[in-house]
Write a structure and sequence with these properties.
mainly beta; 7-stranded mixed β-sheet
Length: about 120
């Protein structure tokens, strides 16, 4: 029900924009966000945006470089990534919190971001 797009190969210092659209049977969205998993590492939180109010939260490692935004009408969330570095290389997953508080119950299949040095 969550479909990511926008991954690819980018040079260090460059930007990349990821999008995630909720599709299929409608569900109540309370928040959407991004997680990532680098090769050989555990999954980590990247960013979150609350659907009502628009509050945003970021991992320390991406603050000031990444921006998350939403389009409520289109059930879409965007992650604008700037000043990318090789440590940002990972599979990025879109996720959503539905009716269960603080539970990331909905996940996309992921999109690969590779940052070359």
């Amino acid at each position: 029900q969550l479909v990511e797009s926008g991954g690819g190969l980018v040079q260090a210092g460059g930007p990349l924009r990821l999008s995630c659209a909720a599709s299929g049977p409608p569900f109540s969205i309370n928040a959407m966000g991004w997680f990532r998993q680098a090769p050989g590492k555990e999954s980590e939180f990247v960013a979150r945006i609350n659907w009502f109010g628009g509050s945003t939260y970021y991992a320390e490692s991406v603050k000031g470089r990444f921006t998350i935004s939403r389009d409520n009408a289109k059930n879409t969330v965007v992650l604008q990534m700037n000043s990318l570095n090789p440590e940002d290389t990972a599979v990025y997953y879109c996720a959503a919190i539905g009716n269960r508080p603080q539970r990331w119950d909905y996940w996309g299949k992921g999109t690969l971001v590779t940052v070359s040095s």
